[in-house]
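Researcher: Let's continue the batch. This sequence belongs to ABC transporter ATP-binding protein, and it's 313 residues. Same format as the previous ones, please.
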Amino acid sequence: MTGIIEIDHLSKEYDSGTKALSDVSLSINEGEIIALLGPNGAGKTTLISTICGLVVPTGGTVRVGGHDIRTDWRAARKLIGLVPQEIMLEPFETVMNSVRFTRGLYGQAPDDAYIEEVLRSLSLWDKREAATKELSGGMKRRVMIAKALSHRPKILFLDEPTAGVDVALRRGMWQVVEQLRRDGVTIILTTHYLEEAEEMADRVGVINKGQLLLVKPTAELMGEFGKKTLTIELDQPLTAIPQDASDRNLRLSDDGRALIYDYDTRAERTGIARLLGDLAAQGISVRDVSTQQSNLEEVFMTLVSEPRQEAEA
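Model: Same format as before. Here are the structure tokens for ABC transporter ATP-binding protein:
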């Protein structure tokens, strides 16, 4: 199955010798949400900018909807909407006219009914006659999304879309993203709010130092690299881990009132039942137990600190 975006051995090296992208290959399916994660300077924005035709690659190919971004760039660009990190708006223009102008840049006929639909979906309709300089940072970012959607793109790039947006607006923005997915729009996002990527993305790609380390379904990634931690609260504090349990992956809390056990969620046997039984046999009374699943941020830190041989698409 051919993806709506096909990236094949893409590279970008600047005149200074900096390698922003190194042999990146990726297929993105129509209608999915994929999150690109990586530290600052990892190459996320360069990858997006290259796909959108803003950066010229030094090697490899990119096809968008079957159109090569270099030889058939007009057709490729019409399929794409881009919301960059930086807020770039004409301060004295109204919201409505700003979105109308962007639609015109793509050669689309005026369609105020559609623009109204977009502005209402982003809770901007009551601000349609306001100058953009009068808006809050969160509202300005929503205007950027409205401009990106003005020509009905099939693909939407969101580069740090919720940066500087308060919690309420952030949640509302992700509701819009979810609706766009239901409408069949393919969404590629970068974010530093890793919990959002974990909740929203179908797949997660990890980029570091210009290399795509891997791409996996979010649930599979969490299952492969995630772990659970069992915290066993004790009735009486301990001064050391019981000798019979010292060979296990156990840690004692600083106050001695809890034993902490890390285990693999994919293992056939976790060893929890045996551990609790051994503690009881030694007369150690357990007050309570609780578990915690590692989140995507912890998984991400594990990935960027452990080099991998190749990306897995």
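Researcher: Any comment?
Model: The two ends are 13 Å apart (CA to CA).
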